[in-house]
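Please go through this chain and its backbone structure tokens and walk me through the local backbone shapes. Keep your notes short.
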Amino acid sequence: MLDGNIRLTYGLDYKGNVCGDKHAHPGLHQLELKYWLNPNQVYQSGVKDSQFKLSNARSICLLDCPTPLEDSLSWVCDYPEGDIHLSMDDWIDRNYDYYEILTPEMKNASLQLQGPCYPVIFPSVNVYWSCQYIARASNASLRHWKQMGGVDIKEDIVVDKSIHSFINSRSSVLKRYMADIGKAWPVLIVCGGLLPLFLSVVWLLMIRYFVAAMPWITVAFFNILIITVTVFYYLKAGWIGNDAISPIIGDHDPYIHVFGRELNHLRAAAILMTFVMVLSILTSIAIVRRILMGTSVLKARAKKWYYISNCTQVAAKVIGEVQALIIFPVIPYSILAIFYMVWISAALHLFSSGQVVQNNCNTNCCAYDLLSEKVNCDHCCGYSIRYTPHIAVAIFFHLFGCYWATKFFIACSSTVIAGSVASYYWTRGETSVS
């Protein structure tokens, strides 16, 4: 769980194995990138009204995304098995290419795009752990392919759009968000747990010793924080500078640009934060007069109390005399921290659960089977992870349980604090004013 569940991050190959799973058969340790072998199947899945789906296209897991060569035709071959006496390490060292040791029958099947080897015609880049085709076919590779008598390969933007649509589907984006939560646990602990606790204690201490300046400090800090977050969203959305997030992982050609749905979400968040920032600044300007009135009352110690000054001074006196209020919030905080850790772990397990099942397809997905030594058109459909209705109900119940537990602990904490402050105010408030 420390690195995110691999089911949420990586895809499935044509055998139903999760890429990167060292316990798969064959072992796929470090082979984390999903690559679609047959470009014509990718094209067919993107054609309008086609019954063929990309999930049924033949795919394997690789260490890196293949790119075509300029002086010769490169190949990506299926996992070595049967009469191909190579280990997985040897297969990787050969750049997944063992075309020259194939039998004439296997070579002929490969020229028909039925495997076990497939030509590398289109360059590809790592987009969220899947090799995204770039619809710029290599002229040199195509020329070599045609000279060898290979079947016609579709050169169309559809091969790019088909994989792009698959990667940017709503379910894929949701899985990536959940996987990011699992990977970002150090950030969540520091920024979501320890830092707020530290700042809360500092804020309570400042109320105790700098009561007159606290309204100004709070308003200024809040506005600076809102502006900082807004600028950060603008940076990551690409509207300021050149530091926009990119779905491409690792080094790549700077002229290759791939658009991700997450960028839309960031831009929407940037627009929302802009409205929040404007509203925050306008509200701060509107309450400047009330803050001046409150602080002047505190400094003059007048007998007539305004609401802001009264609340601030009473809070400061309560914290000064009932010092346990500074320590008490740590108790519900610790309970909620433990609860959230359990909740996040359970949520990741629920979202990564489901059963890997083979799809039902009636389309042509024939491929050469190295074990049976022939082209097999049966049981060649791809695999997908399916969620049962019980898992969906468990996820919704889990979300409701988190919301209910959070509100319950916050309500208990607020009741205790309010009771302490009210009790002090009712019993000693008149004495303190006089």
Notes: Strands lie at 33-36, 59-62, 75-77, 117-119, 124-127, 130-133, 355-358, 367-369, 374-376, 383-386.
